Amino acid sequence: MVARVLRDVGVRELFTLQGGHIDPILEACDRFGFRIIDTRHEQAAAHMAEGWARTTGRLGVCAVTAGPGITDAITGIANAYLDAVPMLVLAGRSPLADEDLLPLQGMPQLEMVRPITKWARTVCQAPRIAEYVAMAVRQATTGRPGPVYLEVPIDVLFASVEEEQVAWPAGYLPEHPPAPRPEAVEAALEMLQRAERPVVLAGGGVWFAGAADELRQFAEITQTPVFMNPKARGCVPEDTPLGYGGFGLFSSSRVQREAGPPDLVVLMGARPGLFTGGRRSVIPAEAKVIQVDIEGEEIGRGRSVDLGIQGDCREVLRQLVDGARSRRWPDRSHWLRTLDEARRSRQRAFPEALQQETPPIHPFRLAHELAQRLGPEDVVVADGGEAAEWIAAAATMRLPGRFLGHGYLGCLGTGLPFAMAAKLARPEARVLLVTGDGSVGLNFAEFETAVRHRLPFVCVIFNDKAWGMSRHAQQILFQGRTIASELGLVHYERAAAGFGCHGELIERPQEIGPALERAFATGLPACLNVLIDPEVVSPVTLSLMGLSAKAQREKEKAEGEGKTTLPYYGQRELQER
User: Fold this and answer.
1) Coil, helix or strand for 61?
2) pTM beyond cutoff 0.85
3) Phi/psi at 402 (nearest 5 deg)?
4) What is the mean pLDDT of residues 547-569?
5) Sign of the C-alpha dihedral computed for residues 182, 184, 186 and 192 taken in this order
6) Residues noted as catalytic
């Protein structure tokens, strides 16, 4: 029943760690021809299901055993919950017949996962298993997507059921997502036509609605630049003046000085929060705001909006595109050119780092050496603290579903499972994982999973011998002291080689490119352990510590005096300040 319903909705992959409570599910899925990927830790299985959904835009499914299987998977469930990622978690459970008799792995699992799932249920009658699986799929994939949880007690799962007892579901997924009212679309087009400096902030609502093509058409017709959070990156190609990764560029001093702030912001399936700057929002207070979301209760949260439109992002964009084709749009070339030049300026922000040929390697140099060797089909997975921020700034994404980064949980250790899921989903693409030397340790044993299941990718470790972002923040706060944030030199490349991976230690800038090409050419999972300069502090860390504005002012002053400076502080400079 589980396997048949999943097959009928197009699921062919199952991520798991075997346990006796779920053996019937594994046996049935294997018999139905599913690709079953068994990991070394349930957290990785949950992250792989999540990574599959982020890469494909479709439902990811994992199955974990009772008790510790659930507690191990909770981090992956929570990560998907905060980022509204469609995922089905199938779980084993102790027997109903042994309730309150202290059975093996008997825990209040439902109560544990309810706060971090969109929907959670226990199947108490075997003939209803198919009904509940269908219900779970519908809950995970309609409306705002999210993780759902379905547990089947072992005595229910091992029961036999006559075929005629089962009500096989059909037609339980809506064929027509909710569409906006025509007058709302007209109002949005009127506001956009009057705007001089509009921007779209696109989020996961665009990607999971399958609206990448419609968003690109809308941007091209109206000449409106689109800024995208990690889930939406690549929906509009970032090698054009219309596509940008991240939400903050238009708030830079250069854009403000040369063009001014946006006068209209369209939130398209993106929620106001961390990625819009939190309470210190990057959305100007004086800007008009249009918010499009499939959940009406989301509209207006955090700030007032001038026009709220409830609807599926693809349906809204289709109507916007149709209406936009018949209108004349103002010339926005100056606005687009200003944003594009600001982006290019940021890409040239560390000229000395790009020219340096001696160790230690500047993380900006490492990120750009990697980024310039990526093709449009390649997938980038960003894990870690400062490491993820360096590659996020350097990478240019041209297609959707090719950038997998952090979300609202700020969860480290997602990199290896995400990379494996991305390779499974896109076997023709090269997958590059960038991670820190701290975050890579959280699911390190999954290198063995990648070898066993023949899922090659290249992992590049930004190794500063510490939990870098935490270490730098502590040095700022505690006058140079660090507490529980030092790691020392660890030869991760040797440990990965022990699992059967290709491994190399990189110490000089000129070694980066050739090592990357060698790693991809092996056809094996690969680990490149790159020693970077531990003195360099990421601009993101500066921003979190409230020092980015001061750094920018000093940079602009130096540029005005004809000097070339790096817009970051090293540790010693930070301590002096």
Assistant:
1) strand
2) yes
3) -110, 0
4) 50
5) negative
6) 21, 42, 105, 410
